[in-house]
Amino acid sequence: MESVVEKWTTKVNTITLGATKQMGGTREKTVTVGGSSTLPYLNFEGAWPNPPAIAIEMWDREPDGWPEPLADAYADVWKDPAKWAKRAVEYGAEMLCVTLKGTHPDFGNRSPDEAAGVVKDVLKAVGVPLIIWGSGDFNKDNDVMPRVSEAAKGENCLLGTAVEKNYKTLTASCLADGHKIIGESPLDINIAKQVNILISEMGFKLEDIVIFPATGALGYGMEYSYSIMERGRTAGLSGDRMLAQPVICTVGQESWRVKEARGSEKDFPTWGDLKKRGPLWEATCAATLMQAGGEIVVMRHPDAVKSFKSLLREFTA
Amino acid sequence: MALTGLDIYKLLPKTNCGECKSPTCLAFAMRVAQKQASIDQCPHVSAESKEKLGAASAPPIQLVTIGAGDFKIAIGNETVLFRHEETFHHPAGIAVTVSDKLSEAEIGARADKIVHLIFERVGMKIAVDMACIMNDSGDPAKFAAAVKIVAQKAPVALILASDNPDSLKAALEVCADRRPLLCGANASNYQAVAALAKEKNCPVVARAKGLEALTDLTQKITAAGVKEIVLESGAEGVRQTLEDLTKARRYALRKSFRPLGYPMLTCMMGDGDSFLPVLKAAAYIAKYAGIVVTDAIEPWQLMPLLTVRQNIYTDPRKPLQVEPGVHKIGEPGSKAPLLITTNFSLTYYTVEGEVEGSKVASNILVVDTEGTSVLTAWAAEKFTTDQIAAAMNKYEVEAVASHKKVIIPGLIAVESGKLQEESGWEVIVGPKEASGIPSYLKANWGG
Ligand code: SF4
């Protein structure tokens, strides 16, 4: 039979997160993602050397309105970031995504020092690499992230997010303190490239950037993320260096917003057991987006993590 | 693959005789390529050329219809590898299994359950559209009895899963009018199964290990006179399945390779794990499955799967929009807040989700921004004071918000002064991000 092997010209960048003692940090392990030379798990035509890595999301403050399945998993620890971090690692997190929600002016307005303290506590409590995610309020992030970056200096974390309208402060911090960076774009390939160009013009290596193309929940725009990721990836594999970065997806955060994942059985009696429905909604979104090339998946529920992992195990076997 | 004008030109006599009413053969070829003329209009074209053109104009992936009347689905006839290149056209069938080893009462109960796997979301109904009856017993009579019960109870397309031609025959006696998918034919039984399929005009599954064996088998089945075929590669493991699905699609689309130009079926059984088959099925729906068969039957298993299909088969060329106007969340009274957002579905459903999550009954005024998000719409002047004020008038928001207060997205805070002047309403600047809505509503409108 004729060959239908696709000749991709470029590889996705390989990126390693976390720094062990020898590397000048305190992490017990590092995590490496990317490096593939084809679309997800098409091993017949290329390498897919590193399976997607799963990060579990945790906050610097007690979350507001997380539904019951998440409360069952974390409510006894979510007032204490160090305990929450340990719990997430027990649930199988290869990385933690520390979301500094509490620094947002509308969600507690915590100080940069408080945020830095949380990051230090988490670094002390667990040995996995960290993703540190700002609150999204530009002014506040520009106060908070430099302090946090400094507090985690040498740990080779992944910090986010740099956006078209606000990237300079974060890029400078990551450069100074040896971190990798997340470039965010709103479901738009051209803006994704633009953000990468802006960041790299400050002397930041393209190989140290992770793309966050914005994630849509299953049923609520997942297909937009899917196609943006797939378009970006096919371009990246075809030689576009501005799109050859690994991709991060915030599956947990988006999934648990939607009523199909969080609506109670009382409100939706025909939808079945919430304790299964919510985690499966999250895991299904992860499994689908993985086919478009997500390398780092940020999740919430332990059962979603567990089943997504078993899927990855089968793909890697 | 469609031929270009030049490809067609090469097949013409190149005499420019003009009998086709085109001045030249080339002009005629261009018109044929654009489907403005038919090749038959040239009296001099050779039979061989005609055949080549006919083969090239057939779709690279056969359209297969399964079922009859209202219980019918159509799969295949896909044209692209990536949905962003155009769209995926024919949503994959989602089939739930029923074993003929169950008691009659259990079969009936399972069929009833399948019927109820229907959900309404974003204004559309999504439902399990196939049932796959498994001849686990090996017994033709038991199989036919099971098929009969399912056919009666479940208004869905049927798959008859048995490699025993006697079982298929017995089952067809009770459901041939439903035009089920025979599942199926393999290297040893294909003669009998293809004959049945031909006699009853049913589509058939060709099952063989690997694409090469499948190529061989589908050629034999077509030679027996069956056109509508579904492939099953019987791959072991998810990676091999993904490989087969991907390669078959590429052979069909890139190489116009007829023997693999059919939709493909994959089968996921739980083996005690209730999540994993759903995740696999989701991956296969994204990557080219025409039918997924699963023993999953709980609503919390099928709802995400049906939603994956709905998402993946959404036409990416159309911006998803929601109806402009006032949308009610909960049962808003006269003191309920009135929020404003755009009609881009992604924006709207995020806002709706957060408002719902806040448990504060509210009204949301959706402004027609031609399916663009808040900032994009604002930058394009589709979501500035003029349009918002016009929408407030048009949809008579005073009827639902006699308090005359309106909440605009924080991202367009600059509009607040002008809108206040223009509308005479009190304009409140809401949170910048939807995630800020619940705490905002609870704090300010929760009373
Ligand atoms: S009728 Fe046929 S041969 Fe004559 S000009 Fe038209 S295409 Fe050419």
Contiguous uncertain segments of 5+ residues of chain B: none
Q: Which CATH top level class of chain A fits?
A: Alpha Beta
In total, the number of domains of chain A comes to: 1
Give the CATH H-level superfamily of the largest domain in chain B.
Answer: Dihydropteroate synthase-like
- Biggest beta sheet attributes of chain B: 8 strands, parallel
Low-pLDDT segments, ≥5 res of chain A: none
Rg for CA atoms of chain B: 28 Å
The CATH architecture of chain A is: Alpha-Beta Barrel
Count of separate DSSP helical elements of chain B: 16
Bound molecules: iron/sulfur cluster
Strand tally of chain B is 17
The general outline of chain A is: globular
How helix-rich are the residues of chain A, as a percent range?
A: 25-40%
Describe the structure.
- The complex is a heterodimer of chains A (317) and B (447).
- With 317 residues, chain A is an alpha/beta fold.
- In chain A, 39% of the residues lie in helices and 14% in strands.
- Chain A contains 11 helices and 10 strands.
- Chain A has an 8-stranded parallel beta sheet. In chain A, strands 1-2 form a two-stranded antiparallel ribbon.
- In chain A, helix 4 (138-151) packs parallel to helix 5.
- Chain B is built from 16 helices and 17 strands.
- In chain B, strands 10-9-8-7-6-3-12-11 form an 8-stranded parallel beta sheet, with helices on one face. In chain B, strands 13-15-14 form a 3-stranded mixed beta sheet, sandwiched between helices.
- Chain B is flat and about 75 Å long.
- In chain B, strand 1 and strand 2 form a beta hairpin.
- In chain B, 40% of the residues lie in helices and 19% in strands.
- Bound molecules: iron/sulfur cluster.
- Iron/sulfur cluster (SF4) is lined by residues 12-13, 15-20, 22, 25, 28, 42, 44 of chain B.
